[in-house]
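In this notebook, the sequence line spells out the residues, with the fold written below as integer tokens. This is how one looks.
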Amino acid sequence: MSFKKFLPLILGVAIAAGIFIGGKLNFTDAPDRLFSSNSKKDKLNRLIDYIDYEYVDEVNTDSIVDVTVNGILENLDPHSVYIPKEDMQQSTESLQGDFVGIGINFYTYRDTITVIRAVENGPSDKAGIKGGDRIVYANGDSIFGKNLTDEQIVSHLKGPINSKVDLQVYRQGEPELLEFTIKRDHIPIVSVDAAYMLNDNLGYIKINRFAESTYKEFKVKLDELINEGVSEIVIDLRNNHGGFLHIAEQILDEFLEDNTLMLFTKNKRDKVEKRFATKKGDFEEGRVFVLIDENSASASEIVAGALQDNDKGIIVGRRSYGKGLVQREMELGDGSAVRLTVSRYYTPTGRSIQRSYENGNNDYYHDYFDRLDSGELLDSAKIKVADSLKFKTPKGKIVYGGGGIIPDIFVPIDNSMHNETLRFLQRRGFISYFVFEELEKDRKRYEGISKEDYIKNFEVSDDFVVAFQDYLNIRTESEITFVAYNKEIKQYIKATLADQLFGDGAYEEIINQNDLMIEEVINYSKEHSQD
């Protein structure tokens, strides 16, 4: 019998087998797994199919899958998380450090999008949009009214890069709506909040997260301070929850000498990857202070730990959060993703600062209240350490692992009642909204005032404070007075007003004038000026 007679049949079987194998193939699998079945995966797939096709009622199986994924991740560790499809854009923008839009900071004020200020040199700023402008139409569509959410409003303003949007704007004093055509562009999400000189030799940089753009922002500010003659620098990482590991490494590289170990990571197979500083650092000689608190986590702790372990940085504040796990984002094929913990990181002396999560996520996230109840946030002697987790730096300083970075100089939390009240008012937006309304009454009063002149000379009047009291008492139906902390509320109002007028770190520069940690750094710097 001729072989050629069966050739079409043989080719057909081969192609069918190839299609079958290809459909099952996972190119990350080891060879011995390519032909094996996975009963766990099959079980989940089969259950979803049963619900889809056989269950008595219509069910959104997408939501079931989301719940299933979250349930699986909750059994791993507190930092392995699922990102649904609808949240991916916002999550990505935050870590990328920019988005495409028209470049404004705004409130939805009395049902209308109202500009606080245009981003400097952004599309709206270049087009002539000003603080106080009300944007009422975008491409002919009204974007005001109670029925519109912030997300719906923003959707009219965001769009593809270089696309245009026609705006109609109400401006006080103008008889008709103003018209602007604005070309959308990349708008930075600022991660370096402030950079300025605290005194003739001590500089200050505040970083709010470690996004893709953070190192570039940081380097620009560092170079500016170097040009101003800085010899010591404060890196403020309070309330910084972290971000990209490689960005933390780039920032560390500015302070550590060539070939200095910055950290190492270890995965489940005990594969160790070490990260070393390079030759490019521009501040390897100067003294560095790092400010941390109980909300400084992940990449913030990498920076603090590496500088502390190399006897380079002086860590000031309170014990940090305690996150020593490294995540990698992995797409799930439908627009969603999972950030999965893939390794642990260790500081140069070999300590892991990840706190325990063996009692579950609820207990893990309750840690702040445990620290508060124990008195740790007020007294460094209450910080629990384990001798088994004791490490020593090259110069003999004792440091500890096992749950956060313990500072070299402890500064207790300001837990007085008046500061709690002020923080509450700030978080709820009361101060910001009040300042905006007051600014709207007479914007011309501030025209021609420079940021430097404002910070140095502007004073908030007692009448301003009384007006704020009246504003609060109407909206909260309470009887709030600021007699006991008149000075503090004036500082918050002045800082918030500066932020709305100038941005560019003006808020931090004013608030920091009475900051306990910064005062500690300045005093230490003066006392050890010859070290």
Remarks:
- The chain has four domains: 36-74, 98-188, 192-413, 417-519.
